[in-house]
Amino acid sequence: MLEFDNTESLNGLWQFAFCPNAEPDEKTVLNVSAGEYKIVPGCFDTQSLFGKHGTGIYRRTFTGKEWLQLRFEGLGLRGRVWVDNIFLGSLDAPFTPYEFLFNAGPEEHEMTLTVAVSNIIDESDGSLFHEFYDFYSFGGIYRSVSVRHLASSDGNGISNIKVTPLDASTGHFRVQVDFLKSVQTTLQLLLDGAQLANLDVAGASAVWEGTVKGLVPWTPEVPVLHTVTVKTPMDQAKTEFGSRTLAWNNGKITLNGKPLKLYGLCRHDSHPDFGYAMSETLVLNDLYLIKESGCNFIRGSHYTQSDFFLDCCDRLGLLVWEESCGWGNSEKQCGNEVFRAAQLDQTQRMVERHYNHPSIILWGVLNECDSTCNATREILQQLFCLLHQLDHSRPVVFASNRYEADIALDLCDVIAFNTYPGWYDDPVVADGSVNVKRHLKDLETFLSTPAYADKPWLISEIGAAALMGDHSGFRWSEEYQEKILTEVLDFLEASSRCSGISWWLFANANTYLGTSNILLRPRGFNNKGLLSEYRKPKLAWHTLCRRLNSYNK
Ligand code: ADA
Question: Can you give the C-alpha Rg of the chain in angstroms?
Answer without folding.
Answer: 24
